[in-house]
Amino acid sequence: MLRHLEVGRVMPGAPERAWRLLTDTRTWPDWGPTIRGVEVAEPRIGPDTTGRVRTLAGVALPFRVTDFAEGVRWRWRVAGVPATGHRVEAHPEGCRVVFEVPVLAAAYTVVCRVALHRIEQWLADGA
After folding, report:
1. Is the pTM of this model over 0.90?
2. How far apart are CA 102 and CA 6, in angstroms?
3. pLDDT given at position 55
4. Which InterPro entries does the record associate with it (predicted)?
């Protein structure tokens, strides 16, 4: 049974840099088109991190990291609902960043493509 769709892109830069970007909540509004802010105890997420994410509409929703493998993958639930997974893989050209989108949220793949473009720009700029 297909549980999620994958949207990914190969981009320049070390996998460690992409991982830092994906796990630093201070950068989420920079690359996440639907995120305007994050409230957490520590800016870098880890296993079992909880907090609130402020959406484009201004609504703050609770979240919890449900799966975390350092340097590889993290998944979360937002308002109790499975949300996107985030994965970084080494690649000969740099790294591959992948979003795992629940099948029921297939339309969100468009948002993920925008996020991948923003992440790629960030990595290319050396920020």
Report:
1. yes
2. 9
3. 94
4. Polyketide_cyclase/dehydratase, START-like_dom_sf
